[in-house]
């Protein structure tokens, strides 16, 4: 009888210096041990034991969960020997974190098989480097500030902007800054008079200090309807393009930037608005989100002035004219490419051009948002996923879904229903309703090529030279 056996490392390894150092020691030992074994090959991103396709050791330790394989009755590939040897070396480096298991002997592995498969898929691509925010995070891979559960921000006056949120500590990209329930939600689908009345009813239900907090928010529309003025100035839509808006004690105080360092998203399952850092935020820096709908600076500034009553003087809007002109050109390109990619007829009849547009957009977003396009990236990769899945290409669809998932995870968190939906599509792309409307690019989800260099992989992914 065959048996699934191997070892897991628990808890999983981090990006900290200590784990990295020990992992390098392990890789070095394995390389030396098997330098004359042509079944063991060092690839750009992992070491492959060719007797089983999943028997791999990634170069980036934080991706590793399991080293294991199904060992057939006649173990001609020497799988058992590889597993035993690597497990012994791992135990020397990581001690009791190494857990041997053997399903044939009734000892199951620690991690779920789906998680293991996902971790192995992630070996193919190197992660972008991250800046550790504290020395402890750098050395140990843990973050004592997060563990203390202190708020990462302070509400305080910001010159020229009234109140704002300012980072109390260094905040890493992808970190949740604040999660908050709204005072109440309102719909802008009714008249101002009705909204005013509804809000006064909602307000009366709130405790006194919450009422005071609400009334202290900025009102850009002073007049006879003060409550709806505050709502119009401060509401954040509950989901993209939702007519329902929420007003928040703290989140409503986050100011705008055309180059924001944070992203706001509504979690419809929990009823909370979440703010994630989309780039590294240094202690003392103001936390900002976008209020604008894109486009060149004159369009953005007009909208911001009429809807919120301020003249934007963010990092982009206050650039010198020549630089601002370049940014405006990129923003126009972004709008144009967005529209082209969203054109359903083009998606159906010129998918190759649509995919090229996605790749061009990726480049421009990177330049315009200084390497951190946040939620734009999640949407872009999802568009690329859709182009592939409509034409039956499950292999590329899976890679794009995975990238979309990772981008969304970093700016909306793992519990967001949209993140979960994309995670499911990443596991089984053909679940998408438009799968295979055409079979022009037909491929199976396990046909993602292995062992390519980064450049070769990108060329395959974007169908360059096809
Ligand atoms: Zn601006």
Automatic annotation (TrEMBL):
SUPFAM superfamilies: SET domain. Residues 151-292 form the SET domain. SMART domains: SET (SM00317). Pfam families: SET. This is SET domain-containing protein. It comes from Penicillium polonicum.
